[in-house]
Amino acid sequence: MSKNEELILNAIEQSRPDWSSNSQLETRTGVKGHSQVFKITERLKSSGLVEGEQRGREWFFRSRHAATSQRSRVSDTRQTREPGPSTASRDFESRAREVLGCRLGTSLAAQSLPGVPKKFDLVSADFTVAGDAKYFDMVRGTETPPAKFSIIAEHVWLLEKTNARCRFSVFGNNRLVPTQWLKKYGRLAGRVAFLFLDKNGTLEALSDAGGDFSGYRTEPIPWPVPE
């Protein structure tokens, strides 16, 4: 993603849930040329990162997450399973922290990194490792979850802003979530690796442009990890 694309995407994210016109984005970001801004917003819309609509002769854009979160609230609520998603998500985060920490040979904790005001789930003390844990399901088990796809895109973008050497998102629950996201948006993942950790403790690299988990397919690790 180019610097100008990052500036415009960030301006749209900061304005959510409001809409922003190309003219407004040109003023806020300093990106010169209405046609240049138009080309960038069209690319962001085609990539699924923002939602756009034409009003008269002007195009307006807003965060895809803002557009879908309200629509998907009822659908996401219907996905609730036993145990509750918050408990299952917390358990998975703890499990991922232990397994990835063991594999990478470092302790991981939830914390922010310098220059990025976002607390990631799996960060090393020296900030060379940064990752997030996601325990997501598809809508009704098989249908695309648009709000969650937007959250993944947002967190990939934030991970790319860190100076960590090793960056990743580790997924649990339904393997279709990361694989379908990669199928649709994989070229936007940059140097953020996508991993899947199943209930048996098997860790699989689904994509790894950074090379930290190249060809990764491990045998199950017992969990909790023995001291």
Q: What's the topology here?
A:
Blueprint: H1 3-15, E1 20-21, H2 22-29, H3 34-46, E2 50-55, E3 58-63, H4 64-78, H5 85-104, E4 108-113, E5 116-124, E6 129-136, H6 146-160, E7 166-173, H7 176-185, E8 193-197, E9 203-207
Helix pairs in contact: 1-2, 1-3, 2-3, 4-6
Give a brief description.
The chain has helices at residues 3-15, 22-29, 34-46, 64-78, 85-104, 146-160, 176-185, and strands spanning 20-21, 50-55, 58-63, 108-113, 116-124, 129-136, 166-173, 193-197, 203-207. It is an alpha+beta fold and 227 residues long.
Structure description:
The protein has helices at residues 3-15, 22-29, 34-46, 64-78, 85-104, 146-160, 176-185; strands at residues 20-21, 50-55, 58-63, 108-113, 116-124, 129-136, 166-173, 193-197, 203-207. The chain is α+β, with helices and mostly antiparallel strands. The protein folds into 2 domains: 3-67, Arc Repressor Mutant, subunit A (Orthogonal Bundle); 79-207, Trna Endonuclease, Chain: A, domain 1, CATH 3.40.1350. The strands form 2 sheets. It has a 6-stranded mixed sheet with strand order 4-5-6-7-8-9, with helices on both faces. It has a 3-stranded antiparallel sheet with strand order 1-3-2.
